């Protein structure tokens, strides 16, 4: 491969790796991972609501890895709420899974930034074959991809298997019981998944 073509390819790969790191950092900071709707089961059963009446008992929320917000409705008007995972929800969520999602997200950011540095070094420097050459780039790309997959799998299992949305909706609710009706992954989840 000619030297100029090699520089262009490594520069483009380095720029793409840097954009990926910025995308993951942005995704971590936003509460746009999950959007969920939930039903106030207690209130709907009390008044035997059905059809259009159920709309008065439907709430919604959106949350990310660190914070979220939503509106609870139980027939008496909207009650907005805000949540933060640290320290508020530590007793309600599966902490070990959530901390692992954050940890692997940080490793993903670090590995993509190191990958960026190695791509640029390969483009403009004289790399050593072991870590700075193609093997090092393959290794860092594999680590980044693995961490992205782990973040996706762990967060999806936290949401689906451990019913995270329901736990958040029912947090500090003594009287009413909320049941999740729908959940969908939003922008930040797909942004993180896209950087595998």
TrEMBL record:
Keywords: Membrane, Transmembrane, Transmembrane helix. It is a multi-pass membrane protein. InterPro entries: Clarin (IPR026748). The keyword Signal does not apply. It holds the Pfam family Clarin-2. GO terms for biological process: equilibrioception; sensory perception of sound. The chain crosses the membrane at residues 101-124, 136-157. GO terms for cellular component: membrane. Coiled coil: none annotated. This is Clarin-1 isoform X3. It comes from Camelus ferus.
